[in-house]
Amino acid sequence: MKRYLFLQWTNMKQALFSLKFMIVTLLICCILFLTVLPAYTSTMDVVGLLSIGLGGTHGNLMLVLGTLPIIPFAISFATDWEQKVIHPWIIRSGMYPYATAKVITSVLSAFLATFFGLSIFELLASIGLPFHLNSYGVEPYMYFIDHDQTVLYFIFYNTHMALSSFIFAGIAFFVSTMIPNKFVTIAAPVVFYYLSHRFTSTLDIPMYTKALTIFEGVYNPGTPGESILYKFTTSIIIVAILSVLSIIQIRRRMLHA
């Protein structure tokens, strides 16, 4: 256990204190600012800008949630495989600790990159604009704004959207164990999202089980707590399944290497 914790800590340091993580976080913030620039007026507020910045009509949602956040670490297995350094790592730490630490770091670093990127955007935008003036935010998190708890609105909403990056990183990591190529890994979440969106949109299933709701929408069961719990539970289930499949695939690769 001590060896695994050391390995996990090493991976987290490598992911979170890297230049790539800082650049990706700032890029997320910059992309949002470039998107909302035409709407940046003195009558606007941060809640409204955030809704515009993450609006699907601008085409940057997958870049912000599904592409940039996976760069700091979700491509690490593909990189290790291409550089042929997996065997030394597994000899030192073991196959299961290596695989588990990789996938956990991948999804957590993607989650944090998105969360911090959105938070920095909101803080910088608030320098010249109020957090909320008259814009209508996202239900059910508008409950917090209606009760003068704007900070909680941003915390819940940022967490909700960052959980999408959490899932995308799980998808990317799994694909990297199937096809250990960095470029394929980076492209995988976008391809998976559009395919799953087209498929589930044709099915007669509850809205909260469709890809559109899971990845970019906000399901409103009635309260903010229920909404974030639904997103968290869905994210954990999807990533847990992908993690198990990733570990099995890594084991299979090592047995036949």
UniProtKB/TrEMBL annotation:
Source organism superkingdom: Bacteria
Transmembrane annotation, as ranges: 21-41, 61-82, 103-131, 151-176, 183-200, 228-248
Keywords of the record: Membrane, Transmembrane, Transmembrane helix
Record carries keyword Glycoprotein: no
The protein's name: ABC-2 type transport system permease protein
Upper lineage: Bacteria, Bacillati, Bacillota, Bacilli, Bacillales
